[in-house]
């Protein structure tokens, strides 16, 4: 046995347990189980907790039942004892074998008692061996043969046959484990005790001796094979490790060495040189490469991310797989070279498909994935395709449609959940075939678009742009079939473009022959212009040649295209020859021009205007520009003279630029100076003219030491220019100060003040403006003093005084604008054609209690000290006073700017125009006031006096009636109820009429009269008149009813006293009360109808009597009284049917009478009676003959809620009808204003302010 295996000992006999047992501490009650547990714990180092876990499983207690149960008695027969012993032995054997298997080793179990077997003749164990001992050893050999047979069988290809995808690492592990197991078997077979057993078999001529020798030979042979295979597989494993150690992008170059190692294994291994073994190894190697591809690409997410970023990785993976397949072919072809020492090469005769079946499927799927991704990337470019031409927009929209549909179709892959590289999953290929069918439609549609786009192109440039935009898409089969024939047409167009270039060349040569020069760009020198023209002609066709050369197409091999190339070379040669001719002509005169013009003075002067000009001749400038172009070309040889001039170009440009700047500044001083400024500049100009004499005479361009002179001259001119510019800036600042004051009028509209002229903070506004003007005046004086310092002027000289007068005029003109701004603002806003709305507001109020007159605030009468005219005059005064807050620029001048402006004709005309506007508006306001005087009687006449006359004569007597009546007086004629109603309706109508009056009136669109207070006061007066008549009737009703109530109360109180016998006075009093009741009866009988009529009339006038009055007139008083009496009966009676029936009838009657009372409302119309019929399901006719009995038959007590809802609805509808009627009256008199749109002349409807206000009031009140 192997050294690492511990020799097991025989189990002790069942002794009922002992204190030395390792299982005793487990608390096992069954002695039989304790024996088994102790054996396992001692011999196999089993942990107690694992035994407990094992034993607690009921399925594992089968041993307890079938093996240990016979141990119950110690009186066993021999047969039983043998059987038990055999069962225990089998158990130990199974346990030992399983334990070895878990360690990857095969245990060759020796029968119990043979562990220390020593064969000594016929003796062993101190006794003579018998036949039974031989049989036990032969059985052992049979058991060993079976176990070793399983080990010797080749199982390396099993994972592949089972559909798994093992790698060479699995093969390596298999042979490593196999070698270890076989070595363990071998060590057991050569054990000294086993040798003794074999010796015993041989001595007994056992047939199993030969079998053991054969078994031994197979084990040795298999062990040698395993060790040999393991050696070669380790070399292959090292090669695989080198592949895995590098980045995946670089592992392709390691595929050759990897496959070369496989070839070496084939050539030198004694056991891997068969097709069966090598194909399994190669299949595993394919799985290894596939695994690396999977790890690198993560196929499950291959289509999930950015395809453009993923496609390079897919290309790398495809390249690695291709290199692996190529390495196989290379190694297969080079196998003979791997055999040494004259060995006969053994080729790989197996079919590659046997090895690469799965690899090829994955590879093809990877190629398919790359195709899909490449297609996706190309189609994604369609989103940015911009087609030109007439049909460009239409075709572009079609392209976008294809792009969007393609993006949606590609979701077959982006939304998928399968592994696209898994050959066992058909989903990817199914989607691919489905996608290809969709792509066929896309390709056909795109081909149509490309062809249409081609024919819509305007020339070669747009055609090449189309080809570039479509790119690889043009190589798709269906698109290529439609577009392929367009390439010859492009070649033809190239010929035409060359024709155009040759025509341009011929025209230019003809012009040159006629004029002696070529047409060049403006301001270009002759030679450089000619060369640039030639370059442009060359570039015109060269760009097309370069673009076509980038296209890979068979048309480039045709004679037609070769002819294009030849003509292009001819054109190139002609243009080069033209450049050479012009260069030679330039050389013939360049030296002379350089020498002559470099010797010229720097400046020349116009004797008439005294203006200066830089004397840098254009020919000299042309030399420098042509030199620059020749330097860029770097083809021609340049002479020394122009080379020397060009070497000074930076210095010459420096001279020229500064002299140019100086001359421009000098000329600007001369031309821009005002007459008042020239005397101020004269001293400085004189010094400058003296300095510039050298530049006009002896300072030339060829001198090297004139920079100091130029810089000094420029500094003098710049200094004067700077000072003059500052004085002009100061003047502009003065103008700007005055202009800023004239931007905003002194008084403006304020949104917070209803967009009227803002006068609530007038004092503060004027104060702030005047403070700004004072500050501006201080700044203006400082600017004038600054100009004096800049000119270094004598402030007492006549020249300076003239300059000050000029500045003073600027300030005066500025004040005209300042004052004109404010007055013009008032003028514009009082002009009906320009104003945006009311500018001023006048309040109209009614004073009834004291003065009893209408009052305007402010008063519109001229001459009023606090009136509207005075307000306007004060505003103009504040505006004109602005001119008094800047002191005159003339020193010692007493006349202010305000005084000067009093005679300004422009401002005078503005004042008169403002006065005219105000007069026109106020006259209309006066007319408005006169119109309102028609209501003056309402607040002038005495109401109580008029009421007394009405009660006497039913009207106010006229003077004629009084005169006719004479001393007898006018006979009294009290008013009837109808006359009361007529008077109430008169004032109600008058109230409605006044309500329709526009409370706010705008005159001339800018003067608003707010008569809301007046209107409210007038309505209040009218309401008082109406209420006076209503109150009289109310008092009449309540007085009559109160008097009747008092009579009933006092009479009932008197009659309640029963006179006793002999009480004559009491009897007389009772008789008197009865007589009073009899006398009052007739009056009372006719009293209620007039009262009811009065109440109904008041109700139509919107007056509801108090609840007390209705209670006094209520019909159900008796019912309620009876109900109260019933409730006062004995409680025992309440269960009687008579009591319940009477109580129910009374309740129904009270409810019905209450409903009838509600239906008496004057708001009830025929439609409401119809609704009541629908609710009660009873049809009746409502007319003057309908009485209470008819209404009670409707059983209204069942429909109290319906009646209440109908009456409430009727009241609300009446209120709405009244409101709508008022709206109709109001809007019938309103008009919209029509105007025309300035641009379209469409008639527009505009609403005046009063219409807007009425609309807002009606909306709020509805």
From TrEMBL:
Q: Which Gene Ontology BP terms does the record give?
A: microtubule-based movement
UniProt domain Dynein heavy chain tail: residue ranges = 134-709
Q: What is the protein name stated in its UniProt record?
A: Dynein heavy chain 9, axonemal
Location(s) in or outside the cell: Cytoplasm, Cytoskeleton, Cilium axoneme
Return the GO cellular component terms, semicolon-separated. Answer: axonemal dynein complex; microtubule
* Keywords for this protein: ATP-binding, Cell projection, Cilium, Coiled coil, Cytoplasm, Cytoskeleton, Dynein, Microtubule, Motor protein, Nucleotide-binding
Classify the main location: cytoplasm
Which parts of the sequence are annotated with region: Disordered? 1-22
Q: Which residues form a coiled coil?
A: 710-737
Signal sequence, start to end? none
List residues of the Dynein heavy chain linker domain.
1088-1259
Q: Record keywords: Cytoplasm included?
A: yes
Q: Name one Pfam family in it.
A: DHC_N2
Which InterPro entries does the record cross-reference, listed alphabetically?
DHC (IPR026983), Dynein_heavy_linker (IPR013602), Dynein_heavy_tail (IPR013594)
What is the superkingdom listed in this entry's lineage? Eukaryota
GO molecular-function annotation terms? ATP binding; dynein intermediate chain binding; dynein light intermediate chain binding
């Amino acid at each position: 046995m192997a050294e690492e295996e511990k020799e097991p000992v025989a189990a002790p006999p069942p002794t009922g347990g002992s204190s030395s047992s390792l299982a005793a501490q487990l608390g096992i009650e069954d002695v039989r189980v304790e024996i088994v547990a102790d054996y396992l714990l001692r011999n196999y180092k089993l942990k107690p907790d694992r035994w407990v876990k094992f034993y607690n499983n009921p399925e594992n207690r089968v041993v307890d039942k079938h093996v240990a149960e016979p141990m119950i008695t110690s009186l066993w027969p021999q047969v039983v004892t043998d059987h038990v012993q055999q069962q225990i032995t089998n158990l130990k054997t199974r346990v030992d074998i399983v334990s070895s298997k878990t360690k990857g080793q095969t245990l060759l179990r020796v029968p119990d008692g043979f562990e220390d077997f020593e064969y000594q003749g016929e003796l062993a164990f101190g006794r003579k061996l018998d036949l039974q001992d031989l049989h036990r050893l032969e059985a052992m050999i049979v058991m060993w043969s079976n176990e070793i047979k399983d080990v010797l069988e080749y199982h390396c290809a099993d994972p592949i046959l089972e559909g798994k995808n093992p790698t060479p690492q699995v093969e390596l592990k298999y042979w490593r484990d196999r070698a270890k197991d076989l070595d363990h078997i071998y060590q057991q077979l050569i054990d000294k005790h086993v040798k003794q057993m074999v010796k015993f078999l041989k001595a007994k001529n056992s047939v199993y001796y030969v079998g053991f020798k054969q078994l031994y030979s197979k084990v040795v042979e298999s062990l040698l094979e395993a060790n040999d295979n393991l050696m070669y597989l380790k070399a292959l494993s090292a090669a695989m490790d080198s592949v895995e150690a590098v980045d995946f992008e670089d592992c392709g170059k390691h595929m050759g060495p990897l496959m070369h190692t496989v070839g070496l294994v084939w050539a030198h291994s004694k056991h891997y040189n068969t097709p069966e073994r090598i194909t399994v190894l190669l299949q595993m190697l394919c799985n290894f490469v596939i695994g690396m591809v999977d790890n690198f690409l993560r196929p499950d997410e291959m289509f999930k991310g950015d395809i453009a970023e993923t496609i390079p990785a897919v290309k790398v993976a495809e390249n690695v797989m291709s290199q692996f397949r190529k390495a196989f072919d290379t190694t297969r072809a080079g196998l003979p070279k791997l055999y040494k020492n004259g060995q006969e090469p053994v080729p790989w005769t197996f079919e590659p498909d046997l090895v690469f079946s799965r690899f090829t499927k994955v590879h093809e799927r990877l190629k398919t994935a790359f195709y899909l991704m490449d297609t996706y990337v190309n189609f994604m470019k369609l989103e940015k395709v911009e087609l030109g031409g007439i049909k460009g927009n239409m075709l572009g929209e079609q392209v976008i449609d294809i792009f969007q549909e393609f993006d949606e179709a590609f979701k077959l892959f982006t939304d998928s959940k399968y592994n696209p590289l898994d050959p066992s999953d058909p989903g990817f290929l199914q989607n691919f075939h489905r996608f290809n069918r969709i792509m066929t439609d896309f390709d056909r549609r795109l081909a149509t678009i490309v062809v249409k786009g081609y024919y819509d192109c305007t020339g070669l440039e747009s055609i090449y742009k189309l080809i570039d935009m479509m790119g690889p898409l043009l190589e798709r089969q269906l698109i290529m079939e439609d577009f392929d024939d367009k390439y010859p047409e492009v070649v033809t167009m190239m010929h035409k473009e060359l024709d155009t270039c040759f025509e341009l060349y011929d025209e230019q040569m003809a012009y040159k022959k006629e004029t002696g020069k070529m047409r060049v760009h403006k301001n270009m020198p002759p030679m450089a212009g000619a060369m640039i023209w030639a370059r442009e002609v060359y570039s015109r066709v060269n760009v097309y040649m370069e673009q076509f050369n980038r296209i890979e197409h068979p048309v480039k091999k045709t004679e037609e295209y070769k002819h294009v190339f030849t003509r292009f070379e001819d054109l190139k040669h002609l243009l080069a020859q033209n450049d050479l001719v012009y260069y030679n002509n330039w050389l013939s005169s360049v030296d002379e021009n350089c020498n002559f013009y470099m010797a010229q003075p720097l400046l020349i002067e116009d004797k008439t205007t005294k203006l200066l000009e830089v004397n840098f001749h254009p020919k000299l400038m042309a030399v420098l520009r042509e030199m620059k172009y020749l330097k860029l070309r770097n083809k021609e040889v340049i002479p020394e003279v122009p080379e020397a001039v060009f070497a000074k170009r930076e210095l010459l440009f420096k001279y020229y630029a500064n002299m140019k700047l100086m001359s421009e500044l000098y000329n600007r001083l001369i031309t821009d100076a005002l007459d008042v400024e020239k005397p101020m500049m004269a001293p400085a100009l004189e010094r400058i003219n003296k300095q510039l004499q050298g530049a006009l005479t002896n300072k030339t361009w060829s001198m090297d030491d004139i920079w100091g002179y130029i810089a000094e001259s420029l500094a003098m001119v710049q200094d004067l220019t700077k000072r003059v510019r500052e004085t002009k800036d100061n003047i502009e600042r003065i103008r700007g100060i005055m202009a800023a004051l004239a931007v905003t009028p002194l008084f403006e509209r304020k949104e917070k003040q209803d967009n009227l002229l803002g006068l609530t903070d007038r004092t503060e506004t004027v104060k702030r403006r005047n403070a700004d003007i004072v500050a501006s005046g201080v700044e203006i004086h400082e600017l004038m003093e600054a100009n004096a310092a800049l000119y270094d002027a004598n402030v007492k000289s006549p020249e300076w005084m003239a300059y000050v007068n000029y500045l003073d005029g600027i300030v005066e003109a500025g004040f005209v604008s300042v004052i004109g701004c404010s007055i013009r603002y008032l003028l514009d806003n009082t002009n009906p054609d320009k104003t945006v709305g009311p500018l001023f507001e006048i309040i109209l109020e009614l004073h009834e209690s004291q003065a009893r007159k209408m009052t305007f605030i402010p008063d519109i009468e001229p001459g009023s000290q606090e009136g509207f005219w005075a307000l306007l005059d004060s505003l103009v005064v504040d505006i004109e006073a602005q001119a008094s807050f800047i002191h005159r620029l003339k020193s010692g001048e007493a006349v202010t700017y305000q005084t000067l402006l009093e005679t300004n004709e422009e401002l005078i005309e503005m004042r008169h125009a403002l006065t005219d506007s105000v007069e026109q508006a106020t006259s209309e306001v006066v007319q408005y006031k006169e119109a309102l005087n028609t209501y003056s009687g309402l607040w002038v006449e005495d109401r109580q006096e008029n009421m007394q006359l009405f009660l006497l004569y039913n009207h106010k007597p006229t003077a004629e009636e009084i005169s006719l009546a004479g001393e007898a007086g006018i006979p009294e004629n009290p008013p009837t109820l109808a006359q009361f109603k007529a008077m109430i309706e008169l004032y109600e109508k008058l109230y409605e009429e006044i309500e329709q009056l526009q409370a706010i009136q705008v005159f001339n669109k800018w003067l608003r009269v707010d008569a809301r207070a007046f209107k409210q006061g007038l309505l209040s007066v009218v309401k008082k008149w109406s209420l006076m008549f209503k109150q009289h009737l109310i008092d009449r009703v309540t007085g009559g009813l109160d008097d009747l109530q008092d009579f009933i109360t006092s009479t009932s109180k008197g009659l309640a006293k029963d006179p006793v016998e002999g009480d004559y006075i009491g009897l007389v009093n009772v008789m008197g009360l009865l007589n009073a009741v009899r006398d009052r009866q007739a009056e009372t009988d006719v009293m209620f109808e007039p009262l009811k009529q009065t109440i109904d009339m008041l109700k139509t006038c919107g007056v509801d009597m108090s609840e007390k009055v209705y209670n006094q007139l209520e019909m159900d008083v008796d019912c309620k009284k009876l109900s109260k009496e019933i409730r006062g009966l004995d409680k025992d009676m309440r269960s009687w049917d008579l009591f319940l029936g009477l109580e129910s009838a009374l309740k129904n009657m009270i409810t019905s009478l209450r409903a009838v009372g509600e239906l008496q409302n004057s708001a009830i119309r025929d439609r409401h009676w119809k609704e009541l019929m629908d609710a009660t399901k009873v049809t009746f006719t409502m007319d003057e003959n309908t009485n209470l009995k008819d209404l009670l038959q409707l059983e209204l007590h069942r429909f109290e809620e319906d009646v209440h809802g109908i009456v409430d609805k009727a009241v609300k509808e009446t209120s709405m009808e009244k409101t709508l009627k008022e709206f109709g009256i109001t809007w019938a008199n309103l008009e919209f204003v029509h105007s025309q749109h300035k641009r379209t002349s469409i008639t527009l409807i505009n609403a005046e302010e009063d219409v807007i206000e009425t609309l807002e009031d009606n909306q709020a009140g509805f």
